[in-house]
Predict the structure.
Amino acid sequence: MSLQGTSAGEVADHFFRHEGAKVIATLTAHLGTHRLQLAEDVVQEALLRALQTWSYRGVPDNPAAWLTQVAKNLALNALQREQRWNEKQDGIAAEQERWLSTPAEDMKHETFADDTLRLMFVCFHPELATDAQTALALRTLCGFSPGEIAAAFLTSEAAVAKRLVRARQRIRELALPFVVPEPAELSARLSGVLHTLYLLFNEGYKASTGDRLVRDDLCHEAIRLLTLVTEHPATQEPRALALLALMLLNAARLHTRTDDAGHLLRLHEQDRRAWDQAMIQRGIASLLQASQGGVLSVYHIEASIAATHCLAADASSTDWPRILHLYDQLLAITRSPVTAMNRSVAVARVHGPQAGLDALQGIAQRSVLEISHLFYAIRGTFAAELGQTVDALAHFKQALKLATLPVEREFISRRIAECGG
């Protein structure tokens, strides 16, 4: 990676997301979960030092090892400053100091992988509040900022900060073990892990803040973490494999969601020849493997919808009746207004725009959707297809008021122009 032409913020974001979480997990494995805050603090400090040092001296050959070693040195210094450090049993102190003094280059990739997986399950211990579990995992494992977590939860940064403080305090009080849980405890915690990685991928697929629609670094980080889950014998469950399939199938289309000028492209406008066929095949294979368990999860259905799109030779040959059937199944499980909104698009493709508009209007919890620009953009699209230009303009203008990303605002502005607005 080169710093040339890259802002300090972008460099910090890259290393926190790609290397910071791994180092936090490895430090926590040796320092104990009661020192999770210390692990986070020293990694943050190491990242700041990296920015200061690399700007002048250049990026080292092994930046991950450099970051790990600096974080270990900072952790050792912090421990040695503690009054209790000298009161520890000699054997414990010597073992921690021996590990902290081991060159980072000697650490194996498997250590990072195992430690990251264990930390996932620490974050989702049942003694922690549900909202705190997800917030802690997004912050510690995924490198989300408090603002990004707040956007994912539709809450404030202050509320997120309080959740994180309470979660770390609870971990210290309980002295939670740094282990993958026993099979009897595994299922409930795995649900939280999968949901968090789902949120992480979605934030990358459609960012909630910033100037970019797509943040492929977040998508690929979610895939990397989920791959760890699916490769471990204890967590290789059908729902995990189905979620991995969903991520792979959607990630295969990431680079075609915008054109060279950065304009948003709808699915039928994308160049399917540019879709990542190797990733699609990997996703299909994962979905087939997930289907062997005899269990149907929402991830199975969503992955099947994505697979139907990916396997269509072109937009006109998309099997919309199948997609509508899958949305019917998904809605029966989730009862989600967002699912119902997405289903209305499939209804329109099968039965026409008036049927789609009726489906959209018939959503019971429509008020939840009326704060989203997508709701009005979809209504505007249906109205435009019906030739109802005045209504279409009104809906698109409301969508423009609610849209936050520049690429979305530009897309909606084009829709308004097409309607003569």
Q: What stands out?
A: Residues 269 and 315 are 8 Å apart (CA to CA). The radius of gyration is 24 Å.
